[in-house]
Amino acid sequence: MTRVIIYSGKGGTGKTTISAATATMLAGMGRRTLVLSSDPAHSLADALGAEISRDRVTLIAPCLYGLEIDTIYEWRQNLSGFQQFVTSTYSNRGVERSTAAELANQPGLDEILALQRVMSEAQSGRWDAIVLDTAPTGNTLRLLAYPELIIGGDAGKKFFRVYRGLANVARPFRRDLPEDRFFDEVSTLLERMEQLANFLLSPEVSLRLVLNPEKLPLMETRRAYTFINLYGLMLDAVMVNKILPRRADLGPYFDYWVKLQQGYLDDIDGSFAPTPIFRTVLQEGEPIGIAALDAIAHATFGETDPGGMLFDERPIWLDQWNDEGEPGLFDLCLRLPFLNEDEAVDIARDGTDLTVTVGRIQRTFALPRILYDCTLGNHRYEDGVLRLEFYETSDGRRSERTPEPADNMRVEAA
Ligand SMILES: Nc1ncnc2c1ncn2[C@@H]1O[C@H](COP(=O)(O)OP(=O)(O)O)[C@@H](O)[C@H]1O
Ligand SMILES: [Mg+2]
């Protein structure tokens, strides 16, 4: 079975560097490793200091292969009919053709195509390990959990089936209906996205989040963490990169930054434990080329096998208790196995963040969106799980708001 590791995180945090370093170390251990990038910036080649082809897997070093996924190529292979139809529909409505072509590029589809390429490489049986360096987009992960959203949820899927039937009947009379090729491609895309969602949940696939000890990456990583855990994707490591070294010769200018980073490093421990956290120090130069990447990987992982499944428990999930049609009643569940029954638990909510303090352990993470408008109720500790009650209030903000257009509601509900 091929081990698949997906690195995700904000741009500039070091995803490409850590991905290339992980792959280099794995190859050095004799495992046939493929490292791919779905970032259109194609920085993988720069990091590895090698030429990497866009359409063929390229040998970079013994056991190490690379591929910069060319999403335009993948688009042409998989979705030219889809793109053509969407483009011409928009341009029939007066949207300029180049703009229409942009619109046909559904945000996130690039990433889906890249993930499909990863899936087919994994299923080819050619590789011991595949490392994916993703593009710096925050929302891609959401698409993974909701492949149907791309065409408007389950409702959209049903609509699509009916529409296809109707189009066959009506085509002789109307010329602006999509070609069969469009329907075939969208069908295939949907099918493959379902396969993809299953593939991403399979036990050999995990995600790793890369961040720096700074405020904004930390907040974004917390949101990603909640999301990944709630949707059952496996997060097996958090990678903290660009940590300033503790050295006396850095001088007072850096004292401030070192202290600031130390505060964030503590926050990171509190936010993501017990998920393993790996730290990488800011190097004296840019880590470019196989030797530098190998060194950085060894310094980061130490004795740990970077290809191992480094953690496999889901520490957060949401239980829903309401009957259909009733206001929502939720338990946000946190696995905290070592809690003393009599330990004081304090829960503080700050907007969309929740801080849970148990004894001397404090943990802050992002609330899942579905709980934004809910009221925090009681909590209880059962079988090693802290359960926080949330309920939807009928007189709460939800009812004061003007109703959303039906279209949005349908997508939201899917
Ligand atoms: N630990 C590190 N020490 C020094 N430079 C680093 C380190 N990690 C990354 N860099 C440099 O920071 C820049 C951004 O890193 P990169 O891996 O391209 O980030 P991302 O892929 O997340 O955008 C690159 O120039 C890279 O060489
Ligand atoms: Mg990158």
Distance between the termini: 33 Å
Shape: globular
Count the beta strands: 15
Query: For this structure, what is the CATH homologous superfamily of the largest domain?
Result: P-loop containing nucleotide triphosphate hydrolases
| Beta-strand content | 15-25%
Number of domains: 2
CATH fold assignment of the largest domain = Rossmann fold
Order of helices and strands: EHEHEEHHHEHHHEHEHEHEEEEEEEHH
CATH C-level name of the largest domain = Alpha Beta
Associated small molecules? adenosine-5'-diphosphate, magnesium ion
Binned, the helix content reads 40-55%
Helix-strand makeup class = alpha/beta
Query: What profile does the largest beta sheet have?
Result: 8 strands, mixed
Contiguous runs where pLDDT drops below 50 for at least 5 residues: 396-414
At CATH level 2, the architecture of the largest domain is 3-Layer(aba) Sandwich
Supply database-style keywords.
414 residues, 2 domains, 22% strand, binds adenosine-5'-diphosphate, eight-stranded mixed beta sheet, alpha/beta, binds magnesium ion, four-stranded antiparallel beta sheet, 41% helix, globular, Rossmann fold, 13 helices, Immunoglobulin-like
Summarize the topology.
Blueprint: E1 3-8, H1 15-28, E2 33-37, H2 44-48, E3 58-61, E4 64-68, H3 71-92, H4 97-104, H5 109-123, E5 129-133, H6 140-145, H7 153-170, H8 180-200, E6 205-211, H9 215-230, E7 235-243, H10 252-272, E8 277-281, H11 290-301, E9 316-320, E10 329-335, E11 345-350, E12 353-358, E13 361-366, E14 374-382, E15 385-392, H12 397-400, H13 406-413
Parallel strand pairs: 1-5, 1-6, 2-4, 2-5, 6-7, 7-8
Antiparallel strand pairs: 3-4, 9-10, 10-15, 11-12, 12-13, 14-15
Bound molecules: adenosine-5'-diphosphate and magnesium ion (MG).
